[in-house]
Amino acid sequence: xxxxxxxxxEQNRDLVRLDSDLAEKCISHIEAEEQALAEERARLKEIFKxxxxxxxDAAMDDDRHMAELGISQLCRxxxxxxxxxxxxxxxxxxxxxxxxxxSNLFGGVSNLINVDLRFQKPPMDxxxxxxxxxxxxxxxxxxDTMPNGKIWETGFTHxxxxxxxxxxxxxxxxxGTPIVGSCYGHHILARLKGGTIxxxxxxxxxxxxxxxQSYQKRTAQGEIWTIPCYHQDYVADIGEAVPxxxxxxxxxxxxxxxxxxxxxxISAFTYQGHPEYAVLEPLFTFALDPDLxxxxxxxxxxxxxxxxxxxxxxxxxxxx
Length: 320
Description:
The chain is an alpha/beta fold and 320 residues long. Helices cover 45% and strands 20% of the residues.
């Protein structure tokens, strides 16, 4: 009995030490990501100044729930200091809509319009500087296999989200506005332009290493980036697109695609990952995969989110 109590006390001391160490790592990671983003955020503010940015919000849920789940998982494992680090950071962030999440990534956009595709359509009275198609709980791959399948508890089907997205996106494309597609947006643009979307056997959670191939000569030969990824669908065939990123390892498929007006009728940059989650990636990953050992031994490296902002800025400057 005494040995059992002593063993439990030692485990508790280990968890306390781990909590302190992880909290320091998470603080350093948040600061490093914010610092890396600062220069490109300043540039984007000048590019977007007074101009409309429309986010087609296909998410079906808000990211606050994911953040709260991650904090809850940390507290259950006695990682109270780590949980507090993220609570303090989240006091300065709005996560209720995809528009707010992208505004956080950009460092604030004064004239951003979030269009909840469950209930709304975008305004068509003025050409926006940029249209963003968000990620989603819906799957483009299921348009062919189970279009009427319900998306969790939302009550919406995969086909409804797909149709609502296209019904809003295609009229905006007639403006010639640059388009950015994240995850679901990446898939829907690829399918629209002759690509094929397939589904993984399991859900990918965490960070993915990618190799930038070419995009307006803004990337260096041999660079390797990391980016948060949470997905099951992927672009199996790129159709008319030009590859921008490729993955490394088990997910070596098309992580970034571009479409140029002369060849494709649209100017777009789409990607599989989620640069908008870069700062909160450790929390979101732990929410979906609450493995404390893995969290304790992982590398907290700075993501490529700032590079994505560079490429988005280039797209808007050239075509917006």
